[in-house]
Design brief:
The chain is an alpha/beta fold. The protein has a single domain, classed as Rossmann fold, CATH 3.40.50. It has 14 helices and 12 strands. An 8-stranded mixed sheet has the order 4-3-2-7-10-11-1-12, with helices on both faces. It has a two-stranded antiparallel sheet with strand order 5-6. A two-stranded antiparallel ribbon has the order 8-9. Strand 8 and strand 9 form a beta hairpin.
């Protein structure tokens, strides 16, 4: 997407009751989705599925994904639900997550298509970051075969990027988890390049729960009960920062988007509700010392190589796990990854 031709940023914020369908329908209507994306178009849904089993505040809920899928297929859109294998150094299979969460059954019932984008044809996107030329493997499917893209994140704290919302969710569009680790030190530049190439990107932030403290996979799940729909990823995250009571100036990748021109004054964002009635507890970042190795690797290409790809990587992870409990059974999950 050419940032100079962006539509006026619109954000719809609503209280979330028991059901998702009506708030999602009304939100998409208010931000112009049904006007700007014709029935019959192919729409890609990108949930946040960053754990082998569903965890509130960590992952998009099945109920949210179900409501979006049923709404769009019921209106004649061709829907693709897609995500890549995740887990970084300790890869797990998104095929298994699709099955466990009932997403395959949802697709069969609605006529949607489920795609593990780790195994779709890649297109290498080149990017210069300082003195380095980076190669970003992105699915051709996202670049050439869809008409619109809807990201479905949850509002959460992230130990390396401070927040994970509408923009950060596209990190999972990079097909190979190992490649993501190599690209971490250039996160702002890479995620900008990924997001700007998406056709007609929209955001639906599933605010049933947020994750406070030590995200993106640990932390405290906080019940929020709101839903945010936007036609602009940056505007969505800036409003979400206010809902979480986080200073957007502290978010490095938002600063990069601003520098690149994907930005407008907050007052020009067409926000249909005041933020104040939706405020809950203040969100904060809380790291333990066992989070610091990952943070150092995230910000240094040399340390990323040492920590993830050097001959010492296995030993260093073994040493770390003496002090930090693994998030899940790494060996068991790795055995379920589909062979290339």
């Amino acid at each position: 997407m050419n940032t100079s031709s962006r539509p006026t940023p619109r954000v719809c914020l609503q209280a979330l009751g028991e059901k998702y369908l009506v708030p999602i329908r009304d939100g998409l209507e208010k931000v112009g989705f049904f006007r700007d994306v014709s029935s019959g178009a192919t729409v890609f849904l990108k949930p946040n599925l960053t754990f082998p089993t569903y965890q509130p505040g960590v992952m998009t809920s099945f109920e949210c994904l179900e409501a979006v899928t049923e709404l769009l297929t019921g209106r004649g859109y061709r829907v693709i639900i897609g995500e890549a294998d995740s887990g970084g150094y300790n890869r797990f299979s998104i095929d298994e997550v699709f099955q466990k969460m009932g997403i395959n059954e949802l697709a069969a019932r609605t006529g949607a298509r489920v795609v593990n984008i780790s195994f779709t044809d890649p297109e290498i996107v080149r990017l210069r970051a300082g003195f380095r030329e980076l190669s970003i493997p992105l699915p051709k499917l996202l670049l050439h075969e869809i008409d619109a893209f809807i990201t479905l994140p949850v509002p959460k704290i992230h130990m390396n990027t401070l927040i994970s919302m509408s923009i950060k969710n596209q990190w999972g569009c990079i097909q190979n988890p190992a490649e993501r680790l190599k690209l971490h030190p250039y996160f702002p530049q890479v995620i900008y390049e990924v997001c700007r190439r998406l056709p007609k990107p929209y955001s639906i932030i599933d605010g049933r729960y947020g994750l406070n403290g030590s995200g993106p996979m640990r932390g405290e799940a906080v019940q929020l009960n709101w839903l945010l729909v936007a036609n602009d990823l940056v505007a969505a995250d800036r409003v979400c920062c206010r809902l979480m009571q986080i200073d957007e100036a502290r978010v490095r990748h938002l600063g990069y988007f601003k520098k690149q021109g994907w930005w407008s004054s907050f007052e020009t964002i067409e926000l249909d509700q005041r933020v104040e009635p939706f405020l809950k507890e203040k969100f904060y970042l809380k790291r333990s010392w066992t989070d610091l190795p990952g943070l150092f690797c995230f910000n240094s290409s040399f340390l990323a190589w040492v920590g993830y790809r050097s001959p010492l990587a296995g030993f260093l992870h073994w040493l770390l796990y003496l002090f930090r409990k693994p998030f899940y059974d790494y060996d068991a999950e790795k055995r379920q990854v589909r062979p290339r």
